[in-house]
Amino acid sequence: MSSESFPFRVGQAIDVHAFATEEERAASSSSREETGGIDAAPLMLACLQWPGETPLSGHSDGDVAAHAVCDAILAATGLGDMGTIFGTSRPEWANASGEQFLTEVRRMVAEAGWVIGNVTVQVIGKKPRMTARLPEACRRMSEIVGAPVHVCATTTDGLGFTGRAEGLAASAVALVARS
After folding, report:
1. Taking the complete model, does pTM exceed 0.70, yes or no?
2. Which residues form the domain of 120?
3. Is residue 2 part of a domain?
4. How crowded is residue 122: how many other Cβ atoms within 10 Å of its Cβ?
5. Which of 72, 82, 92, 102 is the most exposed place for a label (fewest CB within 10 A)?
6. How many domains does the chain fold into?
7. CA 149 → CA 21, 65, 95, 135, 175, distances in Å?
8. 36 pLDDT above the threshold of 50
9. What pLDDT does 34 receive?
10. 73 near 178, Cβ under 8 Å?
11. What's the pLDDT at 29?
């Protein structure tokens, strides 16, 4: 039985980014000053700004939650992956936001005849502390994706790069169905 005959599919993905170094933050700040901005880019996580938190390093805003959700949806539909569709070889996606990626993935999924059923994404890291903003993150990501998105968070109890507060990881699972 081919996977095409199933009315639904599930995709899973992981995304990882290091926190920006002081040099990257200084370069970002200089670049923003030249274009009229003042401060370095804030941390973007689950399509929310986290003032006062160190941003993530990356070709885009580094939003690990949004990236993992995109990859999980793309995996479920078989449409590709973030690296192929939005990779560093695509300068038009440089500095793009997680919201921009999710919006494009949602468009691609609909065009291919799929509908997003729901998504769960878990952010893994020591900081920022997300508990108070989890309902806001769920609402925001659900609005963008057009389906329920559950956002949760955990730590690794001091283990690995996330436990040393060197960056963040996110793991997502998405359910899609034929429209």
Report:
1. yes
2. 8-178
3. no
4. 17
5. 92
6. 1
7. 31, 11, 24, 10, 11
8. no
9. 47
10. no
11. 55
Give the pair of three-digit tokens for residue 18. 């290091």
Is residue 3 assigned to a domain?
no
Residue 7 has pLDDT above 70, yes or no: yes
The CATH number for 91's domain is 3.30.1330.50
27-48 average pLDDT score: 66
Copy the structure tokens of residue 143.
Answer: 């609005």
Is 22 inside any structural domain?
yes
Handedness of CA 139, 104, 119, 82 (dihedral sign): negative
